[in-house]
Amino acid sequence: MRKKRPALAALGVVVTLGLAGFAAVDASDSTTGATPRSKLTLTAPAAAGGGWDLASRELQQALRANSIVNNAQVVNVPGAGGTIGLGQFVELGADPTRLMMTGTVMEGAITVNASRVDLLDTTPIARLAEDYEVFIVPADSPFETLDDFLDAWRADPHGHAIGGGGLGGTDHLLTGLTAREADVDPAEVNYIAFAGGGEVMTALLSGTVELGVSGYNDFRDQIDAGNLRALAVSADEPVPGIDTPTFVEQGIDVALPNWRGVVAPPGISDEERDELIAIVTEATRTPEWEDALSRNRWVDSVLTGDDFGAFIREDQARVDAIIEELGL
Question: Residues in the chain with pLDDT < 70?
């Protein structure tokens, strides 16, 4: 387990955390005698409408449509960049009928929130895909381009509220990296954390924040409807199907992918782990998952088992370094 560290300074002044717990388990929900093929519960450690929720439900659909699992369910446990869900998930014990969606967002939140557990306390199953973040504004915003916003930001760093996911997550890191590259002090940024992309969009449309930061797909429908305008995407090169220039193309040397994957509780047997890897691998080879990759503009990046575990260790170190460098 990760040793608890003092909480690090955050960019924002307001943190809105959705607090929720797993529903009480009664006899009808017992996993006694269940196998991953008969029953599988996917925990999305964020509110409905966000990236983890979307990825969980896309995976659920692939499992269901192809009868890979008889009964696949999704439960949402929002709060603290996924670390509330992580803490509860680790406490489930060696239950092979549970998976949790995770990714870059949780790595940052583990550090910033001084979480008592981290992803190394879980059983790595598979990395699934990567997508990218966007800076977004309402369609009637005075900020027509990224440069428009950056000019106003430099003039008054704290005067422009920015809404994103949990502290230390991808949204927060992208905001801090962009601030640094734009000669804005990250410590002066008014970053407001929400439980998920759905809440960020609500805050943006209601005028609570001027600029939103989240995964492209959290905002895609509103972009297509003309209600929101994307200013920049965090890919290192243009993304097919996304008609938004990258930060790099606009002179801001920032590129930040957002990976998503699934882990199992600690303590399951090697045989149970291998069966979960097989189940998830089968799902990623279905037409439904291929369609999800295409529709959501995700980049296929499947990595399983020990290789995925090694990736988590390396990526957590990378995210920790960014947080320390930015003083978040």
Answer: 1-32
Length of the chain: 328
The overall pTM is greater than 0.85: no
Domain count, the chain: 2
Residue 96 belongs to domain spanning: 18-130+259-326
> What pLDDT was estimated at residue 137?
97
Residue 1 lies inside a defined structural domain of this protein:
no
Last residue of a domain, one of 223, 250, 277: 250
One DSSP character per residue, 85-113 reads: HHHHHHTT-S-TTEEEEEEHHHHHHHHHT
Dist CA 24 CA 246 (whole Å): 45
**Using the 8-state DSSP alphabet, how is residue 5 labeled?**
-
pLDDT in tens, 31-42: 557 899 999 999
Q: Are residues 123 and 181 in the same domain?
A: no
Per the domain annotation, does 5 fall within a domain? no
The pLDDT tens digits of the residues spanning 254-266 come to 999 899 999 999 9
User: Which among 302, 293, 217, 320 is positioned nearest to 262, based on CA atoms?
Assistant: 302
Q: Please check whether residue 51 is in contact with residue 260, taking contact to mean a CB–CB distance below 8 angstroms.
A: yes
Nearest CA to 16 among 214, 204, 167, 212? 167
Same domain, 297 and 196: no
pLDDT attached to residue 241: 85
**How many CB atoms within 10 Å of residue 14?**
14
Q: Counting beta carbons within 10 angstroms of the beta carbon of residue 226, is it exposed (0 to 12), middle (13 to 18) or buried (19 or more)?
A: exposed
Q: Report residue 199: phi and psi, to 5°.
A: -70, -35
Vertex 268, ends 60 and 26: CA angle to 5°?
Answer: 65
